[in-house]
Amino acid sequence: MIYTLIRQLIQIISCRGYRIQGSCMDAHVSHFGPAMSDASEEGELLEVKKGPWTVEEDARLMNYVSVNGEGRWNSVARFAGLKRTGKSCRLRWLNYLRPDLRRGNITLQEQLLILELYSRWGNRWSKIAQHLPGRTDNEIKNYWRTRVQKQARQMKCDVNSKRFRDTMHNVWMPRLRERIESLSAQPGDATDPVSKPSGNPAVYRPVQSGSSVFYSSFSSENSMASSDSYADNSLASDGSCITEGPNYQWPENWLDLPGGQEYESSYWADEMDRMVENLWNDESIWALQKQLFDD
DNA sequence: AACACATTCAACCGCATCGGC
DNA sequence: CGCCGATGCGGTTGAATGTGT
To answer: Domain named HTH myb-type: which ranges (predicted)?
Structure first.
């Protein structure tokens, strides 16, 4: 027991590589270093920088990883000339610099999938993130806490309660499907990028045209399934898509809009943004929630 | 314009787990 | 089998930003 505690303590000290000297969020706290081997070898104290990353640090990290690949994060920190911990480098890469990251608001389809997967796995954020290409566990976790949990708080119910689960399955998820379908039902009007305001090209990446597997597996037919059976309608226990087989891999363009509209410079980008923003402020959702629990 | 309060999200932390030796 | 460094995960924090008064 005591041994385990001591070991953990040593690990924390060596992992963090410094002795705390200020508040944890100070941007340029000086720390005493660490890596005892380094300290003994070099006979000097190394600083570990914390707080927001600078453009130069990002460039160094990107450059190093693009040449040497991911992994061995402590080495990355050392050889890229970054005064950061390996953990900090890893996090920065995974959550911000990775080239395959998808930026911008969480789309309706993604929101629906998050609700689906949360109801199956709970707060296994990294596992959920594996099924949302380009999204990070941090992003999903933040989305959950700032949007969904907030909604739960306003309902004055616990996220682990039956009431919350029922609302999720019987109100939010069907409403998301409705919105997704209502958007997919009006492609003619929505595809004119000239007469409609354009989206932010920096936010949305261009995507290939193509049909949406995702859409085909979430039809309105199962939109009001009971909370107990719901989760099995479209996802296998490992999260794969039953419709497409247990080992189905989501295609790269699985989040494409129906009909092959592109996000970039399209009316769809703005429309999706608007819908996402409005979902949690939707009066009719409150009415439905009320109706559900007044019965 | 100035301030207070609310919200968002990047980055941190501690702990758990993995994998090489 | 146990040790130990590296990595991964989920919870938390607080600076930056947005919104209301």
So the answer is: 47-101, 102-152
Q: Do A182 and A228 touch, CB atoms closer than 8 A?
A: no
Chain A residues 1 to 20 whose Cβ lies within 7 Å of strand C are 3, 7, 10-11, 14-15
Q: Which residue has the tokens 């380009």?
A: A134
A72 beta carbon to strand C: under 7 Å: yes
- Amino acid of residue A36: M
Q: Which residue ranges make up each domain of chain A?
A: 2-97, 108-294
Does the pLDDT of residue A29 top 60, yes or no? no
Write down the CATH superfamily of domain A2-97. Answer: Homeodomain-like (1.10.10.60)
What HEC string does A75-119 produce?
HHHHHCCCCCCHHHHHHHHHHHHCCCCCCCCCCHHHHHHHHHHHH
pTM beyond cutoff 0.90: no
A165 CB inside 7 Å of strand C: no
Q: Which of A132, A221, A100, A227 is nearest to A172 (CA)?
A: A227
Number of Cβ within a 10 Å radius of residue A171: 20
Q: How many CA atoms lie within 13 A of A34 on its CB side?
A: 25
User: What is the residue-averaged pLDDT of chain A?
Assistant: 61
Q: Are A133 and A255 within 8 A, CB to CB?
A: yes
Q: Is the pLDDT of residue A255 over 90?
A: no
Name the region of A19 (left: φ>0; alpha: ψ -120 to 50; beta: rest).
Answer: beta
